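Problem: given the chain below (379 residues), write out its structure.
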Amino acid sequence: MMSAAGIIFSNIHDKSIADLTKRRTMASVPFGCRYRLVDFPLSNMVNSGITNISVITHYNYLSLMEHIGSGKDWDLARRSGGIRILAPFITAYANYNNELYKTRLEALMSIQHSISTMKEDVVVLSDCDGICNIDLREMVRAHEESGADLTMAVKRIVITEQNVNDNIIVSSDEAGRLTDILVHPHTYDGTEADVNINIWVINRTYLLNALMNAQAHGYNSFSRDIISRNIGKDKLFIYRFDGYYASINSITDYYNYSMELLRDAKVRHDLFNNPRRPILTKVRNSAPTKHAAGALVKNSLIADGCVIEGTVENSILFRGVKIGKGTVVKNSILFMDTYTGENVHLDCVIADKYVLFHDGVHLAGHPSLPFCVEKGRSL
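Solution.
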């Protein structure tokens, strides 16, 4: 099978959930009790035998560097290959205007030299805000068997007025060859469609030629200028993914997909219970969670290192959270080292790291608009 390298975009959709990306990249946003969003594409690549991985950064990437470290938790602390965080302006000629990239194509052009030094046959590109557990080895194999220049992962979903503009809608023939794409359309004549899930397999030489052509013509959109312009000319194929997939396009999406982990055992199973494809993350040696006398926990995900003296229901608590006596936390997400005093009531709240809720505080949001508390706030 073709050898593959991986590239992950860490900042592309930061503005989608600006409440959580003021001090971090999209890639390092916590999810699912103990993970970060970057853990999903990283694990998908490592589980598929991809061990030369680059993470393209933009700004705000300190927390991402702290999370990834040397890459040992993903078995990427290697002499050859391993993981690299590629900061902006990595070479003097990466970006002639000294401007931060705004699109995937501009991001790829900024690391063109790094791509040219790779030895692998193909490059797997992935955003970090798509939550799935996918066998990329099968996708690379399908790419090789079809003789494609580029293969795009897609998933069949129901199209509604609410989600049509969030998606890139893809059409293909019976052989899986790409015939048309609609980039974030306002309307669509149909109830179901294949949509791009922002994972691509692309021949490395094809990618390098596309980047040089894009620079010569001033192109800046990967979907419109690299893919759409070459439909019918180049060998562009789809790979249909049938597993669970969630794309975070807003803070409401983030909240609802987090709550889906509590509601649906099948979602948890699809994401986390595949022994051949575990989702890996940074390992911390924390003490087990302590449930004090009188504490009550229902249908919640609780990380280690927590202390619970009150009530937690339908909620997700990350490491080191403390719930005080008489406190009731419902339908909420509390990030690492959040502390509540006594008799606090939280409902539909997302609290970032190191938030302190004083005694008697009452806060409530709504599933369509959760109440967000920024990192380090004291209320």
